[in-house]
Each structure stands twice: as structure tokens, then as C-alpha cells.
Amino acid sequence: MRIHHLNCGTDCPLGGRLFDGRSKGLTGKLVCHCLLVETDRDGLVLIDTGYGLRDVRHPHRHPNPRITRVMRTMLSIQLREEDTALRQIEALGFRAEDVRHIVLTHLDFDHAGGLEDFPSAVVHLLEEEWSDATGPRRGFVSRNRYRPAQLDGVRNWRRYGAQGEPWFGFDAVRDLEGLPPEILMVPLPGHTWGHAGIAVAREDGWLLHAGDAYFYRGEMRNARRRCPGGLRGYQTMMEVDRSLRLANQERLRRLSIEHAGEVRILCAHDVQEFEQAATGNFL
Q: Which of 40, 58, 107, 181 yields a CA-CA distance of 20 to 30 A from 46?
């Protein structure tokens, strides 16, 4: 299977290196790192979608905005049509209908905005995530993270429980409907209750897209966690369970060290991880 690394959205929050650990100016840079997987028999599989065409064209349409002004201002979201997954997939020579499956880490607005750009795709996610996103949204974070306008046009949902065969000590959801066994979901709750990592088996080992289980490269592949203050604060604001989030992050950190030769881990928003992966230099 061939894997393409796509940045399907850029955020430039005020705070510079407090958010990305490297910017020298007033603003930082966060990406929406998605994966496009070319399979032999099952068409294209998109892992997360980033922001979509409708987000770009009508982000704040009344009365049900796709992205709230609060989040757009907080993150300084840069909405560009050429960054959407659909336009990048078309640039690779494919069509929207070639994307037969979308596998989601979770349904936050910056991960699910492009779902409606692929109406033929089957969307796979954990049952808990779907229930939380489509049920009553209580509290500031829930109202801002889950946006019904991004989801109400999606019809082909496939929802899964959080139990499965073990995978490097984690529970894993295997046998996703219509997908090859080389793609599986790894429940990683804490950021949201139904958050999951998506693991893809390659010839040289596994690639695990850990979504928002961590946000910064220094949180993996090191014995001690390291994360800039601004980004650490944002993670705390968005979590549903701090102890669970940090426990799963610690498990991932151990995995990234103890099985470095077997599993490569990346997250959704670290710009340096994305640049290294996109150029084939990701460790």
C-alpha cells in the first residue's frame, strides 16, 4: 500500500514557538496531517479529512456554522481551497469517488470538515465518538469541537465498539468492514471519549496515526514528555479526561521507544513531523 501525507489545513495561533516549538515570529504553525492510502483492491482510504470545501466557502453560515468564530479566532485558522483533501487528491490524479473509505481518529471540526466532499465514501469511527458528536453537546468545548453542519450530510457511517484483538498491548478494532486487515483502529480515549489511532501495516512495519493523543513531537520518542506551554494548555482545554489522556500518551511514548523499529508514530498537528513524513525522512 502506498501512503500519501497530506496537510489538509493550517492554523497559525498567536504565540509562535509556544505552539510549535520553532517559530520565531508572533504566530505559530499547526497542520492537519491526514493520510491517503492507496490499497490494491479497496480503492483509496482517507484517514481524517481536515477542513473541507464547505468550511472554506461558508465557515460561519447562520444559523449553524461549520466552524465557530471562537475557534477560528483562537487558532487563527487559514482556510484555503487548495489545502482541502479533495483538491489535493484531485491533484494526484484521482476523483472524489475513488475515496471509498474514510477512517476517523475523531470528529473534531478540524478532522471531519471534509467528510461531505466524499459522498460515496463509507465513514468508519468508534461508536462512542459518533454518539458524543451527534448527541446533546453540553459545555463550551463540546459545542465548539463538534459541528453538526459538518456531519448532517453524511449517510454511510460504520460504527465500532472499542474492543478488539490486542495490538502491542493496546485494544484494537480489527476487521473494519470493507477494509483490508492491514488497517485497524486503536482506541485512545482521553482527548475525546471515542478517540482512536489508526494503524496501517507497511512492508517495513506499522505506521500509527495517533490523531490528537499527543500534539508535539517531544511527547514521543523521549523518556520524558516535552511540550511547549501554549500547546500543552490547548491539550488540557480540549481533553475530556486528563488522567486517561496522559496514561494513553505515556503508553504511546513507551511504544515509540521500545518498538521504534516496528512502529512509527505521528500525530495530527505537529508541523515538523508532517514535513519529515512528507519528504520521507520521518523517524
A: 58
